[in-house]
Design goal:
By secondary structure, the protein is of the alpha/beta class. The protein is built from ten helices and twelve strands. It has a single domain, classed as Alkaline Phosphatase, subunit A (3-Layer(aba) Sandwich), CATH 3.40.720. The strands form two sheets. Strands 1, 5, 6, 7, 8, 9, 10, 11 and 12 form a nine-stranded mixed beta sheet that branches. Strands 2-4-3 form a three-stranded antiparallel beta sheet, with no helix packed on it.
Length: 375
């Protein structure tokens, strides 16, 4: 194991579609759970007990050892006031930390801006997947987006190396000095130059990486492997992002949810094992979240959009345990069949920003939120 000290990193894994919190961290000792989940409830004998009341879905077995080691914080009842059941609006709330209006910038984009105030590293934030999540969008902040690190780069379809070099030289001239360009051209020039620099540096990461860990051949597994490669290359990246889903289990929930969590938990187990092998687990924090939970009562074969959910914070420096009150299942304590949120997601964000990244969280989360003890 190497012992080289690295700067702290944050890895964010978004479970797209609204993960079913009740079938993820299961209140197996509450008979109301089985009353409301007669079709999609997880039998108590299959639940991985965390304490006398709740336990993991059996498909989280690959990461149960992290809980046993005290490296997983379970954030119960996470959400926000006046919840919105639209995927688009709720994701936007989580992305921008603005629940009452449309936010202008993503919380991670703002964090990247503060981490690299002079804009010296175009790879401070990297998204692994297509497109760019709004969580990482902030004016003037470059973020690389990588679908596959092994094939990443500018003009990868040009197979002949000499032809590719000519094309890249032309690209460089286009995005060269901006003294004579108008404002629009200058913005394009800056974006293009950043892309050129980022592509060149990221392409070196796989060559600098070796590991005994064999990741599962799944999209989430390969994304986390790519992250480990970039971390090992020590390119100054601090914020990593990827998505997996869809967790929108309106029907056929038992097999679909099982497969989704098997893929995610296996990938996280491989990733944390890889980080531990390279001496980076203590300097890496992993946040796993979804835009909302699902209704308490099943609809026959699945569950519909709800509100209060669950999130996980993992890493070698995390104070593991159960955080946040588990929402009540009693009918008199919830409206329209929803789990009420019991803690604001911005408390989790504020804790990560302040206690892990050493940033002032208030401007980023738009308020002063109580921080949590998982760090």
């Amino acid at each position: 194991m190497t012992s080289t000290k690295k700067e702290r990193s944050v890895v964010v894994i978004e479970l797209q579609g609204g993960n079913d919190a009740l079938n993820t961290v299961i209140p197996y000792n509450n008979p109301l759970y089985y009353d409301f989940r007669s079709n999609v409830g997880i039998p108590e004998g299959e639940v991985l007990h965390l304490d006398g009341e709740v336990g993991f879905n059996p498909n989280l077995a690959p990461i149960k050892h992290l809980w046993d080691q005290g490296n997983i914080a379970v954030i119960n009842g996470i959400g926000y006031p006046n919840p919105n059941r639209s995927h688009f609006r709720s994701r936007d709330v989580w992305y921008t930390a603005e629940s009452e209006k449309i936010g202008a910038e993503g919380w991670l984009g703002a964090a990247i801006r503060d981490l690299d105030a002079r804009g010296e590293n175009v790879l401070t934030g990297v998204n692994f997947g297509r497109g760019l999540p709004r969580a990482m969008v902030c004016k003037g902040v470059p973020v690389a987006s990588v679908a596959n690190l092994e094939t990443y780069g500018l003009m990868p379809d040009i197979q002949d190396e000499k032809s590719r070099q000519y094309a890249l030289e032309a690209f460089s001239r286009i995005y060269g000095p901006t003294d004579t360009k108008d404002i629009v051209a200058q913005v394009l020039s800056e974006t293009g130059s950043n892309a050129l620099k980022g592509a060149d540096r990221l392409r070196s990461a796989p060559d600098l990486y070796s590991s005994s860990v064999e990741y599962a051949d799944t999209p989430i597994g390969q994304s986390l492997r790519n992250m480990a490669q970039v971390m090992s290359a020590d390119l100054g990246t601090r914020i990593y992002y990827t998505m997996h889903g869809s967790f929108d289990t309106h029907s056929n929930e038992i097999p679909a949810h099982s497969k989704l969590w098997t893929d995610v938990s296996t990938a996280i187990a491989d990733f944390t094992g890889d980080l531990d092998e390279h001496g980076m687990l203590d300097d890496t924090l992993i946040l796993v979240f979804s835009e909302f939970g699902r209704r308490i009562r099943d609809n026959g074969t699945g569950t519909d959009h709800g509100s209060g959910g669950v999130a996980f914070v993992m890493g070698g420096s995390v104070n593991g345990g159960l955080y946040g009150e588990y929402p009540s299942l009693r009918p008199e304590d919830h409206s329209e069949g929803d789990l009420h949120f019991t803690n604001d997601f911005r408390s989790t964000y504020a804790t990560i920003l302040n206690r892990w990244l050493e940033l002032d969280p208030n401007p980023i989360v738009h308020g002063d939120y109580e921080q949590m003890a998982f760090l």
